[in-house]
Amino acid sequence: MSADTAPVTVTVTGWGLTAPTAAHVIRPRTYEEAAAAVRACGVRGGIPRGLGRAYGDAAQNAGGAVLDMTGVDRIHAIDADGGTVLCDAGVSLHRLMEVLLPLGWFVPVTPGTRHVTVGGAIGADIHGRNHHVSGSFSRHVLSLELLTADGGIRTVSRGTPLFDATTGGMGLTGVILTATVRLLPVETSLLSVATERATDLDDLMARLTATDHRHRYSVAWIDLLARGAATGRAVLTRADHAPLDALPARARRAPLAFRTLQFPPVPAHLPQGLLGRTTVGLFNELRYRTAPRARTGRLQRISTLFHPLDGVPHWNRVHGRGGFVHYQVVVGRGQEDALRRIVRRISARRCPAFPAVLKRFGEAAPGWLSFPVPGWTLALDLPAGLPGLGAFLDELDEEVATAGGRVHLAKDSRVRPELLAAMYPRLDDFRALRAELDPRAVFTSDLSRRLAL
Amino acid sequence: MKDAFGLPQSLLVLGGTSEIALATARRLIARRTRTVWLAGRPSPALEQAAEQLRGHGADVHTVAFDALDPDSHETALGKVFAESDVDMVLLAFGILGDQARDEREPAWAVRVAQTNYTGAVSAALVSARALQTQGHGSLVVLSSTAGERARRSDFIYGSSKAGLDVFTQGLGDALYGTGVHVMLVRAGFVRSKMTAGLEETPLATTPEAVATAVELGLRRRSETVWVPGTLRVVMSALRHVPRGLFRRLPL
Q1: Do residue B178 and residue A325 have CB atoms under 8 angstroms apart?
Q2: ipTM of the complex
Q3: Active site residue B117
Q4: Is the pTM for the entire model greater than 0.90?
Q5: Do residue A449 and residue B85 have CB atoms under 8 angstroms apart?
Q6: Cα(B119)–Cα(B167) distance, rounded to whole angstroms?
Q7: What domains can be seen in chain A, in order of their start residue?
Q8: Keyword Iron on this protein (chain B) (predicted)?
């Protein structure tokens, strides 16, 4: 994705490496260049793109323009007392952590990777392990500047329809240029981690319901290959930012140091099916058996706990050329039976889901296409080459939609378009706002074409 | 748009009465395809095919298209592409001819060549350009194992498919990196109305099997698909059989 302001025709995919399409990639360095690029968009429109971590086709635009916003990456102002930052949309969360941690501040929400931009975080309204406490990213956005289809720049503040359409709006309302984000104060860059095992899905849900509120971060790794009585067995990881006095003397010398690990990248052209049933089954068995039954107070770095895969560049190549499908769904509170059925079906089918996580969501965000709703979210990766996978996931979708749940648009690459209106009740409002704000449909992506957003 | 499994939402069939094409369309409609254009010479059979696909739940339009009139391809197909994106073009038209008659009356042989090769080249180029403009899509071309090695019994048809086969390979390379996926389907003897009354060769297959292979090829983004798969090995061996011996083989 290296291109200058002159458009270059490149084949673009999402992080899942499926459904490649060709687009003219433009990399603006200033707001003016971005505005010029939007005005110059032809009939096939344009879409902003950040670091390309959306799994599906959200940041692709076949035959049109893709605005690589990673070149618009200045941090303008940090309020080190009040805890806010004003920065360009192309700034990555990694960069924010590098800059903010030494000052005693942390990003309010971090997903499983630091390599997402602030613009992408808002556009996909990302969530992290602290959703049950802190909600999704947009809850911490105080205001943003949006480059709209007419080439003008608008300041969008909380509580307006445009704000609610833009947060979670997958870049389809315009190009986010800057955002003011509220930060989280931390004393150290380490986390105090508690781990426990759950013997099956019911045990897991009971534990999450009972004690989630005691911790800021909570997530469960779930073994979807376990069958019978062990169906849905899991390892729960809870964490809180460690206070200074919890650190050993040595670590107290540089309590706010931000350290990351880097392994060699995954080579290109790996064969498909490396992560099959046997490999994943073995891994799951090991993961479960080696996890402590109950342990508290272990100190871990931010990068090790939240972003283990960031240490392996191009980890998405591990499923081979065919790529993979990331399937994330949420079902509301009270729909535990639907979740049980979904987990049972995946486990009965022996899908080599790697990795798979379950998380309890807190309150929903006002974003019209924002994914989280209070309830249970299950996320898993599956190789796209798995026979019959498409039809199987369609069946799961039916289950999810019937239970009033939804799939995550930033991760989707395959949902049946007909189901979308049931999953996102505000979809019509979103369409109406887009039709008014952007009548020529300048902002268009493969996702919006596929799902008629 | 195609989904993660390469399944198209819209399909343009060139040769709208082809049994292989209709079997493929039925299969794709069962998954994600909602819009189908059937291009072919206007006929009751074409309308019937459209009606049949409508019964499977797709929105089906027919388009007047004549392989033997390359000058009209630009207009006929241009209209379809102007209407909306086409995720997949299935080039399925072709005639078998009658080897004995075609040898006696060269005009008939020319007709086979013009339909299967010249017409296909024109239609494929028109489609390829449109797909390139939209930046995505699959062009699936039905070739034949008859084009792999000339046989006494059908070399006129075979030579036209051989030309189409090489053309498609080259087109696939030309379009590499443009977002357009070109897939060549080399089928063996397919039991259909085109081959009715002919003696079956070994490893004969069905339109449904070809459809399954096409769906798999789309998912894998394959460049060449053999139906059945074993033909790949068989043909690769047959290619190396000396002429003198090959002539005497009962093929």
Answers
A1: no
A2: 0.94
A3: no
A4: yes
A5: yes
A6: 12
A7: 71-186 (3.30.465.10), 190-421 (3.40.462)
A8: no
